[in-house]
Design brief:
Order of helices and strands: HHHHEEEEEEEEE
Helix content: 10-25%
Strand content: 15-25%
Low-confidence stretches: 14-35, 181-191
Shape: globular
Structural class: alpha+beta
Mean pLDDT: 80
Largest sheet: 6 strands, antiparallel
Strand order of the largest sheet: 3-4-8-7-6-5
Distance between the termini: 40 Å
Number of helices: 4
Radius of gyration: 19 Å
Length: 191
């Protein structure tokens, strides 16, 4: 079959539409991810109406609808004081400021969570295999975990700032004395 001008224009339009759809998908909630998440019982359970009342629109979109905030939009990117980063939905301490690092990705990044703070699930939305991080206590979506972080874990917990609140003061330390590796990965393997 020979390519005609009509075929090339049609192919170009299809590629453009697919590109626009892909770019838009990164900035919105992924309803398929919410539907695919296995039903779990969390310690903090609220109705959708209660979550909407308690959270800002940005917090609700990220924590309850698995949205991703725009890169470099969170004031927590520039937060360098000593303290603890907690879940904006239930106030569970998630990360110590001592594990925060500058990843230059546009989102607050950490090389390890506090012990028993984060739950993890495999996320296959948008045709990628990733590890999704959520609050262990309320199930709120926080972000994703990647294997391109600094030592000692080699992990990058890439979190949405809207999903967290910063509490200045003495940074909470990991009581267990060790750092977890996310589901199905290790610092040496790809996620």
């Amino acid at each position: 079959m020979s390519l005609t001008r009509r075929h090339l224009l049609g192919l170009g339009g299809a590629v453009t539409a697919a590109g626009l759809l892909g770019l838009g998908a990164c900035s919105r909630a992924a309803p398929a991810a919410a539907e695919a998440r296995p039903a779990r019982q969390f310690e903090v359970v609220r109705s959708d109406a209660e979550w909407r009342r308690l959270l800002s629109p940005a917090q609700y979109a990220v924590l309850r609808q698995q949205a991703t905030e725009r890169p470099w939009s969170s004031p927590l990117n520039k937060e360098h004081r000593q303290g603890t980063f907690a879940c904006a939905g239930c106030a569970l301490p998630l990360f110590s400021s001592s594990t925060k690092f500058e990843s230059h990705t546009g989102w607050p990044s950490f090389w390890a969570p506090l012990h028993n703070a984060i739950g993890e699930d495999r996320d296959t939305t948008f045709g990628m295999l990733r590890v999704e991080a959520h609050c262990r206590r309320c199930g709120g979506h926080l972000g994703h975990v990647f294997n391109d972080g600094p030592r000692p874990t080699g992990l990058r917990y890439c979190m949405n700032g809207a999903a967290m609140a910063f509490m200045p003061g003495t940074a909470q330390q990991d009581a267990a004395g060790g750092w977890r590796v996310p589901v199905g990965s290790s610092p040496a393997s790809g996620v």
